[in-house]
Amino acid sequence: MFLEKVGIPEATYHYHMKQLQKEDPDKVWKERINELFEKHEGKYGYRRIHLALRAQGHEINHKKVQRIMGEMGLKCEKFTRKSRYKSYKGTVGKVARNRLNRRFSTTVRLQKLVTDVTEFKCMEDQKLYLSPIMDLHNGEIISFGISKRPTLDFVMEPLNQALEIIKDEAEYRTTIHSDQGWHYQHNNWVKTLSKNKIFQSMSRKGNCADNAVMENFFGILKQEMYYGEELIAYEDLKRKIEKYIHYYNNDRIKVKLAGLSPIQYRTLTSQSAA
Q: Which superkingdom (predicted)?
């Protein structure tokens, strides 16, 4: 009687009732995708989710992952606010030539390293400074320093940590690239590199594209764990950055590393070479 009043044929009614009772064919995929999205705290877009699923042995088209994430409202949020620490104070020491010349890729571990300094704001008008050293072979942060002040010792600490790794594991002579910040022109930095037979390379004045890989790392780090968040105390932010760098090295996959994290890629290529 009701169907006659609303003008719906009985066959149509039963068809739609059956469709509603059917289980969602993407239910399992949605569960897996949501689990990965939450595991990486919303940092993964559909490309990395797709690679992560493939790494788990699942076969699924990247367009299907994109569609499902769109239906579920899972979006990797990006923030565009930027802040950049400037350590350039003119020519206060030795300026090295640009040996790297934007050749950011290498198949040799520890052959090309890049470094820079960035700053973060904390509560109570404090600042935090981060100085990492990255291996361009796999994008791994091999050492880093964190300090309340951008002193010379602050950048020398990660350099000395990196030198220990280079001495034990480097197969070819290493080049370390930076901008023309005063730390990298300082006699202590220059002499330490020379003493350890490390080539020094510097970006051209005011040209951040010459160190684009490190600039990109700073952008990713701040987008994924700093921008859009409330300011926190120095010690809390320090722990948060340390945790993120561990995550970045060990768990955060890179499309250009065939869906592997930097350390996973290093381990795989070391095994292949052996």
A: Bacteria
